[in-house]
Amino acid sequence: YKPITCKSAMNRINSRYLPFHWDLNIYRGCAHRCRYCYALYTHDYMEDNRFFDTIYIKQNVADRLAAELAKPQWKREVVNIGGITDSYQPIEADMQLMPEILKLLIQHKTPCIISTKSDLILRDFDLLDQLSRITYVNVAATITTTDEALRQKLEPGGAPSSRRFAMLKAFAPTKVHTGLHAMPIIPLLSDSDENLESLFAGGADAKVDYVLPGLLNLKGKTRDHFLEFFHTE
Questions:
Q1: Sheet of 27-28, strands arranged across
Q2: H or E element: which one contains 180?
Q3: Which residue in 20, 29, 181, 203 is deepest, having the highest Cβ count within 10 Å?
Q4: What does the alpha-carbon distance between residue 141 and residue 155 come to, in Å, rounded to a whole number?
Q5: What SS3 state is found at 68?
């Protein structure tokens, strides 16, 4: 783990296909070690390009966010949190950066979308509940399979799928919108009718507001990383 300072907390995203135009990542690199990770390329610009083994901690991210949200021109647009690296990966249990981020969003009435493969987000349940009473909040869990043996191979550092479903269900009584990101759907591994039906059933039990499926993306470094796993495991 290496501390770094960031020049900005939020990055502008110009895309007509996404429901947000701002992205916020409090870490660079991710310990979940997903075999299908599409973000490996982001470490090409770092001193150490081992995406899963060297996690950079943006130690001043809350200060930078406070300054950006306080600008008169800030329009309280939706901020996507954790689009590249999971904000609730294991190191967050010690660093506790997210509570400060959420307090700032509450202060500035700023809506957000959070995607995670962890149930550590429940630590911040009260803050998310409070924010959802002020503005739009969406919490999504990416769940690839309900087969725990397969899940451990695909996402060795993530929380078991059952705990992710339980996390989504915990938010059901609140105003937090919840989503199941059933992705990626991997040919020969997670594309069976049995698995897909199980995912949708889990989402229904958790009372999610939507399900967003997605296909496997093997661009750039992701291709070699995934195929090595596929042929050796």
A1: 2-4, 56-58, 27-28
A2: strand 177-185
A3: 29
A4: 13
A5: helix
| Residue 187 structure tokens | 């040919």
Q: What is the pLDDT of residue 233?
A: 74
Q: Tokens standing for 209?
A: 């507001």
Integer Cα distance of 231 and 158 in angstroms: 22
Q: Furthest-apart CA pair in the chain: how many Å?
A: 54
Cβ contact 196:185 at 8 Å: yes
Give the three-state DSSP class for 150. Answer: helix
pLDDT in tens, 139-184: 999 999 999 999 999 999 999 999 999 999 999 999 999 999 999 9
| Residue type at 143 in one-letter notation | I
Helices 193-205 and 161-170: angle between axes, nearest 10 degrees: 30
Place of tokens 């950079």: 56
